[in-house]
Design brief:
- This protein has eight helices and seven strands, in the order βαβαβαβαβαβαααβ.
- The protein is α/β, with parallel strands linked by helices and about 250 residues long.
- It has a single domain, classed as Rossmann fold (3-Layer(aba) Sandwich).
- It has a seven-stranded parallel sheet, sandwiched between helices.
- Strand 1, helix 1 and strand 2 form a beta-alpha-beta unit.
- The protein is globular.
- About 45% of the residues are buried.
Amino acid sequence: MAEVAAIVTGGGRGLGRAIAEDLARRGVGVVVAGRTRATLDEAVEGISSAGGRALAVPTDVADASSVEHLVDSCLEHFGRLDVLVNNAGVTGDVRLTELEEAEWDRIFDINVRGLFLCSRAVGRHYARVGSGRAVNVASVFGLLGRPGFTAYGASKGAVVNFTRAAATEWARFGAQMNAVAPGYFATDINAELRDNEEAVAKILRRIPARRMGRPEELASVTSYLALDAPDFLTGQTIAVDGGESTF
């Protein structure tokens, strides 16, 4: 039985995998959730080979029964559930006048409906045990306006305000919810973009730190909120963006 157990959605790659690995290094038993079994198994193998404990649970966060199975799997495997990291998300670069309803729905199904379903299921458990934490992965695009990202920005803005509202409810039964808003991070997901020197230069001009973030930098902030932050810290969103959201 783990002393602390966490679920990380979208944990098979990118920032989610970095978060799962960081939590595991800190002794947390981690359930890595996502839609692609192969990437989940690869993440679990990496965590296990480094001496950590992890379980892969294929999950569609937009499906309530799949989310319930995820929560049950964590409780059955680790005997407890203390941390939820709502990281699963999708993006899309489409101007509003060309944006189709199906694309809008695709983004909101994962980024907002998935957040809701996972938080509801885990929150019910936290209410029973009287404790627990969640960290939601928003985005700097939920704090700023960017052309082409109307749907994505709106969905991540919803994450920020969902965090505020849910935190006020969870405080009544001793649980906390906060969010992180990452800016540009160098991951496999944006490898093609990073190969375009002109595009990267344009992005870096908007970032006072003049670089992209490293996945472990977001992971350390997430782990702090999940494990070490005071209980009195709740409902907040911390931008981890090299200063991009400051102007």
